[in-house]
Amino acid sequence: MNKQFAPENDAGLAVFNRLESEVRSYVRAFPALFDRGVGTTLIAADGREYLDFFAGAGALNYGHNNPVIKKPLLDYIERDGIVHGLDLATTAKKAFIEAFEQYILKPRGLSYKLQFPGPTGTNAVEAVLKLARQVTGRSNIVSFTNSFHGESAGALAATGNKEHRAAAGFPLAHVTSLPYEGYLGASVDTIDYFKKLLNDPNSGLDKPAAVILEAIQGEGGINAASVDWLRRLRELTSRHGILMILDDIQAGVGRAGSFFSFEAAAIVPDIVTLSKSLSAIGTPMALILIKPELDVWAPGAHTGTFRGNNYAFVTARAALEAYWSDSKFEDEIAGKSAILAEELRAIAEDFPVLGLSVRGRGLMYGLVSPKHHSLPGLVSQEAFRRGLVIEIAGSYGEVLKFMTALTITETDLRRGLSIIRDSIGAVAATLEGESRGSLAK
Ligand code: PLP
């Protein structure tokens, strides 16, 4: 979530300031009146172009209005294809389910039932927490420090963010927050800590129904769990009969370099949540994957009017067919990931006084400013002035969050990184002026 608040200029935004709730956030950080989106370019009503290093917070992995995905949707609309379908059987839904089995599940040897909840990530999380509790008969859930799982009460209880939790207005219960990998420093093994709590009858930890986790924490500041940590968590939860829910809403659909973020660890979660980029064009859609033996739902036990967004089925299927029928797309992501990581390290080295560090995986990277928490927010504002949209993350906004479309060209990737480098230089120079030389290189 974006916490930086630039002064809102008068870019045709007066009506938003006058009538839209104070809850609005991104519009404050990026005050432009956006009109069109083409690939990785956002175009404002005044004609100004912005390079998009934000990708709809991970909902636009294939870029804006990708023609490969848009064309089948236009055809579908043109022939009066069903738009709204609850959970009725439709041809669009059938084609999506078949494609998901063919391109995603089968090649990975995965066997899951598919549940379509209401179309937000939050609703998917809400549903899986209910399901885990139903399956096990236990109420407690373990989530991890710095996690983000959504805004409704159940999902929020599993979310770390203090301000979001406070907005609930009542105590959020039945979740225990445990340290994610690295939270207590490199010397503390947080899986050992969890193991100890589970094995000690007097630890005070109520045996959880499930753990819910992100393999790469997005909103929490791009914390990427190691393969080893994920494997050991899988072993520990299996041994104790605790379900593992992998929330792949942000890190999934190619973001981490493979379709699922957990593939590198070769683990099989019991339940997986997907949303954001699954629809491939920015329309709402969510999907839950459930090991067949855990699918204990009674018919209609978790419903929602917008479970059947058929436009999303059409676009999601088109993307699976175009990008996931072979390994070409993954290879391209790996190539761009290497460029991104290398360039970010070079930027960090070029400003040694700032003490920046780099972390992440795939095309989900963070440039971390542990010494100066305000720096990423200032850099984001400066980059926006220079025509690039990028957001910040982390407990204190200390992480500049790189989330380009996976389809970004190498030229645009390098162009954006050069804007970031210049923006850091400009911010560092200002801060140096303000603090008489304590910050700049
Ligand atoms: N889970 C994760 C990992 C997320 O990153 C988000 C949103 O950022 C959600 C759940 C909630 O998804 P939504 O905003 O679609 O409700």
From TrEMBL:
GO terms for biological process: ectoine biosynthetic process. Its cofactor is pyridoxal 5'-phosphate. Its EC number is 2.6.1.76. SUPFAM superfamilies: PLP-dependent transferases. NCBIfam families: dat, ectoine_ectB, PRK09264.1. Belongs to the class-III pyridoxal-phosphate-dependent aminotransferase family. This is Diaminobutyrate--2-oxoglutarate transaminase. It comes from Rhizobium loti.
